[in-house]
Amino acid sequence: MTSRGAPPTAYGHVCWAYDDPAALDARAVAFLAAGLAAGERVWLAAAGTPDSLTRRLDGLPGLGDALRRGSARMVSVDDAYGVDEVIDPETQVQHYAAATDGALADGYTGFRVMAEATPLARTAAQRDAFTRYEHLIDRYMRTRPMSAVCAYDRRELGDPAIAELACMHPETNAQVLFRLHAADPDEGAVALAGELDPSNQRLFAAALERADPRPVDGRLVIEGTGLRFIDHRGLIRLGEHARHRGATAVLRTTGSAAARLAELLDLPDVRVEVVR
Question: Please, what are the domains in the chain?
Answer without folding.
Answer: 13-176 (3.40.50.300), 182-274 (3.30.750.24)
